[in-house]
Write a structure and sequence with these properties.
- The chain is mostly helical.
- The chain has one domain (18-183).
- The chain is 45% helix and 0% strand.
- It has six helices and no strands.
- The longest helix is centred in the N-terminal third of the chain and has 28 residues, at 20-47.
- The chain starts with 19 loop residues before the first helix and ends in a 23-residue tail after the last helix.
Length: 198
């Protein structure tokens, strides 16, 4: 299993908008595959002897961890902290698997940066009901109000000089191609932003 987020319908481009239903379907599929990868990785940690573990994990784990970071911010009722067990399990198993790998600590820092970026956007909009309501057409689940952070390219490391140019915008106004927060009042919620389904 391999997830190619930069080729998915999670990446929104202003000149080529995607219908919200297709984005929802892509989110659901990515969550399903990421959960399966996390479970398979957990099975490996528990059942495969350490000498047989493969250390070449970075490419497919970054996409999986990225999806699971996004899922942390789909808060369940009563949940106040953005986290989930599948994400925590995969991170724990990843660090267990990469103890003797130089890239292990690098990926750990990278994933923490992605999580922190997502958390900043979450905190910016968590009390902005009007902005969150504009995201309703894109929600794959209740409380999935925030744009997902996904790479624009095959990895988050295409341009080492500027980390933010490597991923899609997670700012709601930028995600919806709204010039300013005031112009969001003109957007009609009964007309999803994007092309109709084919």
């Amino acid at each position: 299993m391999h997830i190619l987020l930069y080729q998915s319908e999670l990446v929104r481009i202003e000149n080529s908008p995607i219908h919200p239903e297709r984005i929802k379907a892509a989110k659901i599929e990515c969550l399903k595959v990421s959960s399966e990868i996390s479970n398979l990785f957990d099975w490996k940690i528990k059942n495969v002897p350490r000498p047989y573990w493969c250390q070449n994990l970075t490419p497919w784990l970054t996409s999986c961890l990225s999806i699971l970071i996004n899922s942390c911010f789909i808060l369940q009722d009563g949940q106040t902290e953005p986290t989930n067990q599948t994400y925590e399990l995969l991170v724990k198993n990843y660090f267990e698997s990469s103890k003797n790998c130089i890239l292990g600590s690098f990926l750990g820092i990278y994933i923490k940066n992605l999580y922190d970026l997502k958390r900043i956007a979450f905190l910016k909009y968590c009390n902005n009901i009007s902005a969150l309501s504009l995201m309703l057409p894109y929600c794959s689940a209740p409380n999935d109000y925030y744009p997902w952070i996904v790479p624009k390219y095959s990895s988050y490391a295409k341009f080492l000089c500027c980390f933010s140019s490597n991923h899609t915008s997670i700012d709601i106004n930028e995600y919806l191609f709204i010039a300013s927060p005031h112009s969001s009042e003109d957007t009609k919620l009964d007309e999803p932003i994007g092309n109709p389904l084919p």
